[in-house]
Design goal:
It contains ten helices and five strands. The chain has helices spanning 2-12, 16-44, 49-91, 105-171, 177-204, 207-211, 214-227, 246-267, 296-306, 310-320; strands spanning 232-237, 271-279, 282-289, 324-329, 335-342. A five-stranded mixed sheet has the order 1-2-3-5-4, covered by helices on one side. Helix 2 packs antiparallel against helix 3. It starts with a helix and ends in a 10-residue tail after the last strand.
């Protein structure tokens, strides 16, 4: 038993090409010796040629079968490595450690190279995720700062301008119709500018998101944009989703905002349904429309080529929050976006 184990271990350390050559040599030698002996034996006994051909066929089949078994055994580590690589591709795991043992030199070299590449890719992905998260957080903070500046400075300045124009109107004599009309037109322009400014501020960072929470902010944004486009919207929200950490609120609102913008621009939908709920320590956001739908694969390819990254941005935000986004769409069958992000609801998550 010790000799067999020793031979087996020696074969494991032998390169695949040499194993196949040794196996084929063994089969050829056995076939030659056995065939020669059997042919001479049958010839001496004056056996019919059809019987000789029968034995020759049986010997050939046995030789091919044994050779196939030897080649399959020799290539088994390569097949197992291929299966391991498939699992790495599917689950983003590491190469099975058994292939990183210095047994078969070729398999070891190939597995080591693949493992090194996988580790480098994982490290680069982690770096890119960290950079992406930092960029998104910085962008959100910059939006907040700009929104506050516009609201507190520019908004107040326009409000004071409107008040002063109203005072001037009241002080103009009745016979100065032309001047009064110009002041009224100027005041209307200032009021329209203030309304536009407020829309910009709400687009950058809705104060309702900070003041009242995620559900009212999504409801306000959906109704403001969808109903203006003639699209009916139904919003179903579970009150248990509040309160949420500020960063998670921003993430979910931006995902809903992007989904709503895509519906307005591209879907030609008549009705939209938005659901927000908490299920099994996950916050779930679903946005579904009855629009034209699209082919997801072709849209992804086009988005990367034209740098239209709306749908990819939804997936990226969900992944950075530790969750995932599932996009389902078929031409003529509408579109569904389902986002799940983890949230335990404990106090430690309530702050950024």
């Amino acid at each position: 038993m010790g000799i067999i184990d020793h031979i087996r271990q020696s074969l494991k350390r032998t390169p695949i090409l040499y194993r196949i050559a040794i196996g084929n040599g063994f089969v050829i030698a056995i076939g030659a010796i056995g065939g020669t002996y059997l042919t001479r034996l049958l010839a001496d006994q004056a056996v019919d040629w059809w019987l000789i051909l029968l034995f020759l066929g049986i010997g050939t089949i046995l030789s091919v079968s044994i050779n196939f078994w030897i080649i399959k055994s020799a290539l088994r580590p390569l097949n197992e490595l291929s299966t391991s690589v498939y699992r790495v591709q599917k689950d983003h795991s590491q190469i099975d450690p058994q292939f990183l043992q210095p047994t078969d030199p070729e398999i070891y070299q190939l597995a080591s190279t693949l493992d090194s590449l996988v580790r480098q890719l994982n490290e680069r992905n982690q770096e890119l995720q960290a950079l992406s998260e930092h960029a998104i957080n910085a962008l959100e903070e910059e939006r907040r700062r700009i929104a506050l500046t516009l609201h507190d400075d520019t908004g107040q300045a326009l409000s004071m301008l409107i008040i002063n124009l109203e005072r001037l109107e009241s002080q103009i004599p009745g016979e100065e119709f032309e001047l009064k009309e110009k002041l009224v037109a100027t005041r209307n322009l200032a009021q329209q500018s203030l309304a536009n400014l407020r829309m910009i501020v709400y687009g950058l960072r809705p104060t309702i998101l900070d003041d009242l929470g995620l559900v009212p902010a999504i409801r306000w944004y959906a109704r403001t944009n969808l109903e203006e486009a003639g699209i009916m919207v139904e919003i179903h929200a579970n009150g248990e989703v509040e309160p949420l950490p500020p960063q998670l609120k921003s993430t979910l609102f931006r995902i809903a905002q992007e989904a709503i913008n895509n519906i307005v621009k591209h879907s030609n939908a008549n009705q939209v349904e938005i659901k927000l709920s908490q299920r099994e320590k996950n916050i779930q956001l679903e946005v579904k429309d009855d629009g034209e739908g699209f082919d997801l694969a072709s849209v992804r390819e086009k988005a990367l080529r034209l740098e239209q990254l709306g749908l990819l941005g939804i997936e990226e935000r969900a992944e950075l929050a530790g969750g995932d986004a599932q996009l389902r769409s078929v031409p003529g069958g509408g579109t569904q976006i389902l986002v799940r992000v983890p949230f335990s609801g404990t106090g430690e998550n309530q702050n950024e």
